[in-house]
């Protein structure tokens, strides 16, 4: 096109619409870059927001609201149903309520690291297809049996590091497709029998730095596919087959920095695939 020629009307409309996407459509406090594979992202990090913007563009599927001042789980208006990833790291959210999460019918990734959540109860989550849930560095001291029921069929990764868990109720982990469970840096002293029954797909369990003193008989029974068990920096005194019972697929066992004084001769009876100790 020669310099100085007028632009065709159709091209003017196209350029204006693109400009609207980049500037006008995005809330003033946020930016809306277009990510890889045409995935639309709304970035509202570090804006001192006490509430989420309600005027998000229709095409948004990923939202980051990290390092703000949210006290309630946010509502993003009509686009909430399209959001697949929601990052809420370093806010002040103190509870999860079913009605607050219900609009997020497409949500797969939820990161609530470094908030003020103290408990998960039945009804904390609605029925949704959540796959990746990070609740690390909160104040969680209570996991009510059934709290994960509505996301049990979809959840693949659950992180509960740096919370205040002292005990793990039986039947709380009925998550048949979960592959990774992390509970590092809690206050769990005793792991009861059958605590993890219901996690038949789990590949990796990480429980470092809890101060665990006792693993009851069959503590890990039901983890038929677990390959990696990390128990470093606890207070275990003995390795025996009663707490290793049934771990036939275990490849990696990390138990350094404990107080182990006894390894029973038959301790490894069930761990014939162990590769790293």
TrEMBL record:
Question: Where is the secretion signal located?
Answer: 1-25
Give one Pfam family, short name only. LRR_8
**Which PROSITE patterns does the record associate with it?**
LRR
Q: Does the keyword Repeat apply?
A: yes
User: What keywords are assigned to this protein?
Assistant: Leucine-rich repeat, Repeat, Signal
Fetch the Gene3D superfamilies from UniProt.
Ribonuclease Inhibitor
PANTHER family documented for this protein: SLIT RELATED LEUCINE-RICH REPEAT NEURONAL PROTEIN (PTHR24373), TIR DOMAIN-CONTAINING PROTEIN (PTHR24373:SF275)
Q: What is this protein called?
A: LRRNT domain-containing protein
- Protein source organism: Ilyodon furcidens
